[in-house]
Amino acid sequence: MHAWPASEVPALPGKGRDLRIHDTATGGRITLDPGPVARIYVCGITPYDATHMGHAATYNAFDLVQRVWLDTKRQVHYVQNVTDVDDPLLERAVRDGEDWTELAERETTLFREDMTALRMLPPKHYIGAVEAIPGIVPLVERLRDAGAAYELDGDVYFSVESDPHFGEVSGLDAEAMRLLSAERGGDPERPGKKNPLDPMLWMAAREGEPSWDGGTLGRGRPGWHIECVAIALDHLGMSFDVQGGGSDLAFPHHEMGASHAQVLTGEHPFARAYVHAGMVALGGEKMSKSKGNLVFVSALRRDDVDPAAIRLSLLAHHYRSDWEWTDQVLADAVERLARWRAAVSRPDGHSAEALVEEVREALADDLDAPAALAAVDRWAARQNAEGGTDEGAPGVVSRTVDALLGVAL
User: Fold this and answer.
1) What top-level class would CATH report for the domain 306-405?
2) Residue 289 pLDDT greater than 70, yes or no
3) 84, 217, 244, 293: which sits with the fewest CB atoms below 10 Å from its CB?
4) Cis omega (within 30 of 0) on the bond before 51?
């Protein structure tokens, strides 16, 4: 599966700072110190309704991570999946009377177009669940043969008790996990499971649903968590730098994935940092496909909203915060974009050397994009009010905003 084209990232003078970021597993900030190649895995979409502002906010957060790393003169090895076969996708296809593969392809194409418009840097490897199945099956077989998985009516479940580190990612107690498991795709009430929290690794073929050859597992399709584990281990290996996604993925998805990988390899941790973006609400409730309260990037683009303004509306909120999308949020972003463009359109201006360092410091401090925007606001306000004599300043500001914030002025 192919990703989307990369926009050029301007090189800035000097060098960026190492990223200090909030790690869900430890509950505090850690300083990331990758080697020459920083490794990041971000969980992708289930392509039956893409791309709403919650998606955009999540991928914007991890785009900033990449940009901070690139500014430190590192290379970035970024991997993202597409869950192109799963219950919600199949259910939507049945509801709409559409072939599930056509639905997945159409929505994945739309997602690529949205990511391109928003100038999100693409992953090096963009992998669909279906194409990953040949690599998933041997992992499930290994877990089963090692006694870390068991069969139940043809389905194969992972035993969470096989991982002594289970629970360390989310830090939740058993009851909280059970409630979230029921809400987020698990089946804690199924009779016969060794532990209510045990997640499915391989679903035996169901009538009328797609299935694949699972070797000794029989025909079926993979569970959600093992999909990402197989892709991450294949392309990044253990102890990569950042596992990212929305805050609703901390449990069960990232918790279960970490346990799968740790049992498979005998190593710990799966990822050095677990980083989670906040939720975006509309009308007082979290944007949700199931609720239908969504604002789509593609719809805004069809209404001729500048993608740079959409991106600024995301950057105005700290990535870990939960916030609400409103017409005013977008109006503020449109107005900010106009002010910035007016400021950099002058032939000269105030020195921008201090601004570059302010933006770098803000982003290195747990991706504090609102502080970075405030720094550019101050420069733009002075520039629009007084002007300046530094002929290179407007260009430096434009390149800084592009390189570090992904906004083209």
Assistant:
1) mainly alpha
2) no
3) 293
4) yes
